[in-house]
Specification:
Number of strands: 13
Structural class: alpha+beta
Helix content: 25-40%
Shape: globular
Oligomer: single chain
Order of helices and strands: HHHEHEHEEEEEEHEHEEEHEH
Strand content: 15-25%
Distance between the termini: 36 Å
Number of helices: 9
Radius of gyration: 18 Å
Strand order of the largest sheet: 1-2-3-4-5-6-7
């Protein structure tokens, strides 16, 4: 591991879960979520990891799902591994639901890289309420709540001076040859930016909110009528609450749906956003 681990100071984390969503303290949920994800770090040294990875993800996902339903009630959960196996949402009741990815950045993780996360978000209908991204390799926690801000640990994320802007934009490799994406990357390079592999969408979104990355470009798909945003939802809320609303590839305001999306300070600086800059929070 190239990143040194730092202990999580749970006492310093903000209580930002939207009022009325639950009676449980959010710090209790975050601590339990991190406890489930933490073993990913030690398991990365397993010589048989490649053959066991699917089982490891499935085991962690079942624990995450149970935690979400214990904490938020018997809500529906859109979970990546369950969707891949059964093609459906884990059933529940009510307008509140959760989306989760037990290991966002599986290929990166399997290669020995520290760039992977465990991530989940809570929605009411299509509106994001709360997002959590945990990085076991460094014990970093990113969290955001609608109207409550975005945080890395206890540090609130907000727009810094333009001089701190990163030159790197993360692009999902599967879409790099799409004509619209090729046009976007040409414009970014002309403006002095470079592209890199995505590795972990939720992590790169959090880095975008920190301005450690200039932005991300990717697309979302659906399966059986369900939006596959388990690795994206929490990071998008972190960005939005840090003043970076997502856009479509055409540069207009993005709504939760399939198709292309992009977000980032560099994309806006390169002129890829259309409309008023006051759309940012």
């Amino acid at each position: 591991m190239s990143d040194a681990a730092a202990a999580i100071d749970y006492a310093s984390l903000p209580e930002i879960l939207p009022e009325g969503l639950t009676d449980h303290p959010v710090k209790e949920f975050i601590a339990a979520f991190c406890d489930i994800g933490r073993p990913f770090r030690s398991r990365q040294d397993d010589p048989d990891l490649a053959s066991n990875l699917s089982a490891v993800e499935w085991e962690a996902e079942r624990k995450f799902v149970q935690l979400c339903q214990d904490f938020f009630g018997k809500i529906p959960v859109v979970a990546e591994e369950h969707m891949n196996r059964f093609g459906r949402t884990i059933p529940g009741t009510g307008p509140v639901s959760a989306v989760l990815d037990p290991l966002d950045g599986s290929l990166s993780y399997a290669s020995g890289s520290p760039r992977y996360t465990c991530t989940m978000a809570v929605k009411k209908h299509d509106s994001l309420l709360f997002g959590l991204v945990y990085r076991p390799a460094t014990e970093e926690v990113y969290l955001a709540a609608a109207g409550g801000g975005a945080y890395r640990g206890s540090e609130r994320l907000s727009a810094p001076a333009a001089s701190r802007r990163s030159p790197l934009v993360s692009v999902k490799s599967q879409i790099s040859g799409v004509p619209e994406v090729r046009a976007l990357t040409r414009r970014l390079r002309a403006a002095g930016y470079r592209t890199e592999r995505m590795e972990s969408t939720s992590l790169k979104l959090c880095w975008t909110a920190q301005r450690r990355r200039a932005g991300i470009i990717k697309s979302l798909r659906s399966r059986h009528g369900v939006l596959c945003d388990w690795g994206t939802a929490a990071g998008l809320l972190v960005c939005q609450e840090a003043g970076l609303p997502p856009r479509t590839w055409a540069g207009s305001a993005w709504r939760p749906t399939t198709g292309g999306l992009m977000v980032g300070d560099g994309l806006r600086a390169a002129g890829l956003y259309t409309g008023r800059s006051s759309d940012a929070r």
